[in-house]
Amino acid sequence: MAPGPKILRRAALSLALLLSACAGGRAETGPSPTTSLYGAFMAGNYAAATGHEAEAANFFATAIARDPANRDLLRRGFIAALLARSPERIALAKRLGNDPLALMVRANAALETGNYATAAQDFAAMPKFGVTGLVRPLLLAWAEAGAGKTGTAIAGLTRLDAAAPFGPVYALNAALIADFAGREAEAAPLYRIAERAFPAPNLRLAQALASWQARQGNTESAYAVLVHMAASHPDLDLALPALERNAAKPMIGSARDGVAEAYLTLAGSLGQPAQALLRKILLGFALELRPDLSAARLLQANLDVSLGKRASAAATLAAIKPGDPLHAPAVMQRAEILDGLGKGATMLPALAALAKSHPHSAAPLTLAGDIERDAKHYAAARALYSRALARLGPNPPGSAWAIIYGRAITEDKLNDWPQADADLHRALALDPGQPFVLNYLGYSYALRGIHLAHAQKMIEQALQVDPNEGAIIDSLGYTLLRRGKIAHAMRVQIRAVQRAPDDAEVNAHLADIFYAAGDRLAARNQWARALALHPDPAEKAKIEAALKRHGIEAGS
Questions:
Q1: Model's pTM, two decimal places?
Q2: Which residues of 457-490 are buried (b: 16+ CB within 10 A; e: fewer)?
Q3: Are 283 and 313 in contact (CB under 8 A)?
Q4: What tens digit of pLDDT does each residue of 58-73 get?
Q5: Burial class of residue 114 (count of CB atoms within 10 Å of its CB; 0-12, 13-18, 19+)
Q6: CB distance 153 to 145 below 8 Å
Q7: Rounded CA gap, 109 and 103, in Å?
């Protein structure tokens, strides 16, 4: 087969426990005036576990009203209110004392009224150890800077261990604070410390360094930093022209912006699945303080996708408007997400606009080709892939194998096998061990009954790269069947079905092998199973044709 490329259980609440792996339906209604404490508590847990934060917040609010002195219940309701961004989070934070997240919420509320001194007091009360201990110095320093205590803020960061994991981050923020306050002599060496600490700058570091260099008149150095960043992060390549145009713009416009930056920094450093909930809360803080912080929106969208909330991710990205330096990568990411939801066609005009405004980039045309191919508009997809390749010139980079491979698939679907065969070999020339291409080419040969020994070798080579991919195992089983190696094919195909038990084509191939082995009953049952898996119309027609060809009734 040829695939395409492409809450709580304990009284002591922890953020990790809030995130349940449980899937399920919605909590269909909110609490009624007669909902009991236990009913509200259980409904809140269920809503939280299934990712319905607003409903969870409402149910916990009802439970808290029934038992207002229950501190564990307060914490649960507070976390639910945070995730739902409910106004109740501030009132609950005031009741939770020195809980770290409660302190952040109270400080954020103070920042929104310009009360930096109160925010600094709340940040200073945070624990000095653990995850929150990492971000505490940044939050405190920015609040102090907002309160006019620039020297105190810079000193608080520069006296921290520069060799510690967060040391370069502290140096960068000290530089940003000095820069924000107009203390250029202090900012310059701190920027150099931060720059030397990172072999490849991330987006926000690159923007900070480029802004500093451009405002010092060093435009070539500014652009070099951004180019280096884009080379290390290809998904941001489309943003490069806009980032260069905006290079001289200061990254921080207020101390409140700096606090938002600190939250983004910590969220970006938390990569473990168990930390997903905390990342979401921190990104929420960043965007509440600075809704235009597009880097936070990109990270939030990635997090939502990982949590299975693709519609939410698309909505988050839609808020990044034209004119924002990160608009182009946001459009690309949103198009990929919506394509996965079957709505990719809605993004074709935006991708066409990107292709026009970025005439040297193949990426928008390639993604548009993928969307058209997924919609089975093969002629349109083929044309888009060809336009994308034309932009890469006569000597495309190795990564262009994917574009050529995509075009080959459309050519195959359009019954232009000679051109598809040629393109598949071009793709292999760019990436000789590419398992997708090896598998597609080998399986295509097997379907046509040609070059079968060579087909088997190619598929076996693909399996060396990805030995557990069910689609490639299926290709090998089918090729062995075409070669008449029935016993070997049977062993391989059973393993393919184990890897892809719900794939109709894989199950149908096992039926073919059963029939070739003379086991008519097993073949009939396996074809019936394949039909029960609701194959697409083309595969269904193939299975029904096999049954008719062999004189077998599916239900007999």
A1: 0.86
A2: ebbebbbeeeeebbbbbbbbbbbbbbbebeeebb
A3: no
A4: 888 788 888 888 888 8
A5: middle
A6: yes
A7: 10
